[in-house]
Amino acid sequence: MQFNKLHFFTKDASLGEDLLHRMDQRDTWDRFYSEKRATGPRHFDWFFSYREVSGLLLSTLQGLSSGETRILDVGCGTSALGLGLYRDSPHQLHISCLDFSPLALDSLSQLIRESPPPRHPLSQLCCHLADATDLGATFESSSFHLVLDKGTCDTLLRCPQGPGRAKQLVTECLRVLKPQGKLLQFSDEDPDARVPFLEQAGGANVTVTEIGHINGICYYVYMLGQRPLDLADGREQSLEGKGLKTGPACLP
Hints:
- One of its GO terms (biological process) is methylation.
- Belongs to the methyltransferase superfamily.
- Residues 71-181 form the Methyltransferase domain.
- The protein is of the alpha/beta class.
- The protein has one domain (13-251): Vaccinia Virus protein VP39 (Rossmann fold), CATH 3.40.50.
- It is built from nine helices and eight strands.
- It has helices at 13-21, 26-36, 50-61, 81-88, 102-113, 152-157, 162-175, 191-200, 228-240; strands at residues 69-74, 93-99, 124-129, 144-150, 177-187, 204-214, 217-225, 249-251.
- An eight-stranded mixed sheet has the order 6-7-5-4-1-2-3-8, sandwiched between helices.
- Helix 2 runs parallel beside helix 5 (102-113) and helix 3 crosses helix 4.
- It is globular, with a radius of gyration of 17 Å.
């Protein structure tokens, strides 16, 4: 798989090397976010900002649910993606921001507390500490209408042992989708490489939209759902489940 070169915004050369070779390790990201919050918590977005795709995301939300729409942002870091939707969407949302770095979630939780209220008065935003490749202890099957992945799959694919875990990530994201739910992956990887990978990982009806060039790099959004057999299994598992488990850092 071919990727554009990642540019890391860090003063620590050894940390930059960690990011290049150990992006699947929690201690690498703890170091990264420790440096980032040295001057106070602030958003950091891989690839591009929330504003670059806010229109696409808000339009995607339309029609996903007639009531509350449940959204999962995997590998959220301190991204403004979930918080932007919480702030901008006129629909009632329940957004779960998930990461395996406690330092990232500490910073994001502070940013959430300092954020203006949601556009919809009943919307909620929660933070969850968990590994996106193993969501079973955190979320039941068929829990979300929309799952967002901006860069998480890419970081795994760039690691020496990453492709297997990247496939596991996609499998877990599809498992927690509701019937007719959607997984959106944002990436700079060419469709000729990413689409076959997503299909092999279990995705159905994979579609790709070119977002455009940002800072000289072309980005894409890949949208996929469950295969028909997965939909049937998901419905059975959801009836057996005990409901969505929410984390301690939750707004409002």
